[in-house]
Amino acid sequence: MGVCTVHWNTSNFFYWLQEKHGDVFTVHLGPRPVVVLCGTQTIREALVNHAEAFSGRGTIAAAQLVMQDYGIFFANGERWKTLRRFSLATMKEFGMGKRSVEERIKDEAQCLVEELKKYQGVPLDPIFLFQCITANIICSIVFGERFDYTDDQFLHLLNLMYKIFSLLNSFSGQMFELFSGFLKYFPGVHRQIVKKQQELLDYIAHSVEKHKATLDPSAPRDYIDTYLLRMEKEKSNHNTEFHHQNLIMSVLSLFFAGTETTSSTLHYGVLLMLKYPHVTEKVQKEIDHVIGSHRLPTLDDRTKMPYTDAVIHEIQRFSDIIPIGLPHRVIKDTLFRGYLLPKNTEVYPVLSSALHDPRYFEQPDKFNPEHFLDANGALKKCAAFLPFSTGKRICLGESIARNELFIFFTTILQNFSVASPVAPKDIDLTPKENGIGKIPPTHQICFLAR
């Protein structure tokens, strides 16, 4: 296992190290050693074949300052298992994987169409609208309500999330990740992140109080109500994980995860359609053939639209929104590929190295929907397609995100042609920030009614 020291943790740097040291190596992120896993087979072997051993959560220093080890994202051990079980069951109850969430997504897609029509083809940067529609789906499940796109409080919350995500992935944010041990004592980006997180937590705490005041135990409305009822049920248990701190942090985690990654993927999707108009044309031809123009797309349409489905898969693969993946931790001494990883060793499964794995993708660095189509033009499953990670820490909202991407993407292209003041070849897809996550570039886009 090669050992080396790096100055910042970008996926490109990890690629360079992979070429020198192979698919498993130790890297020093500032003072702390981290084991890096590259390539589809390595990541799957660790997170699936040794799922329990690799199921711990590692540290994201700036987020940890506020969240500590509370909430579903950063919890470990029994706390994490309890919160994950509860969250999965509750989100299923309020629509994840059920028809009702499809109806919510379709309603939100219709609202988006109406909003985009108001611009009458004038160029706009759609990122805030994409945040609105993805946030509203998770808000309907967690808070029991959706917000208007002009709601000042809603827009402020979205802006806070966008800023936190940007700061975490900025150069300063990555420097803090490396040297948080002493940088935390000085002014810097981490203080801005903490302040913005605290604002979000204050909003959530206020919402929880409103829920308490209007709670009807016989008819829970959403995730918060269900959690409050569980808190009440377990109030005599001094060791319960169902307490205020875990509720607030879990809601923040779900709100954040349910908004940023899906809206960024959708944004990249539209940029890619601008850059590759021949792909857009084929998608729109399939939409016209299967759906037509007189009804909204439904999830049932997906199986009849292999090309569109392949394009969405390729958008997710190519945009590679969480390139390094969230850090893991081994929960016990683990022998992996001949190396002993002591308990609590941090592990980075570099998802980007699977999504760009040349053993699975013919042109890993090119946007090509054919990567997901077989010789007969049917959708092809691929072991390297890991945008949601895999194993026990796989993204909790994968099915919601997949459904959102399909309905939002097809609804946009059913109703609009996209155009840009910039020629396709000149559209720059370089992210604004690129750390643990990617922030798409801003771009003015014209949505022209078809």
TrEMBL record:
InterPro entries named among the record's database cross-references: Cyt_P450, Cyt_P450_CS, Cyt_P450_E_grp-I, Cyt_P450_E_grp-I_CYP2B-like, Cyt_P450_sf, Cytochrome_P450_fam2
GO molecular function, one term: heme binding
One GO BP annotation of this record: epoxygenase P450 pathway
A UniProt-annotated Pfam family: p450
Cell compartment(s), UniProt: Endoplasmic reticulum membrane; Microsome membrane
General function of this protein: Cytochromes P450 are a group of heme-thiolate monooxygenases. In liver microsomes, this enzyme is involved in an NADPH-dependent electron transport pathway. It oxidizes a variety of structurally unrelated compounds, including steroids, fatty acids, and xenobiotics.
Protein name per its UniProtKB record: Cytochrome P450
Cofactor(s) for this UniProt protein: heme
Gene source species: Mus caroli (Ryukyu mouse)
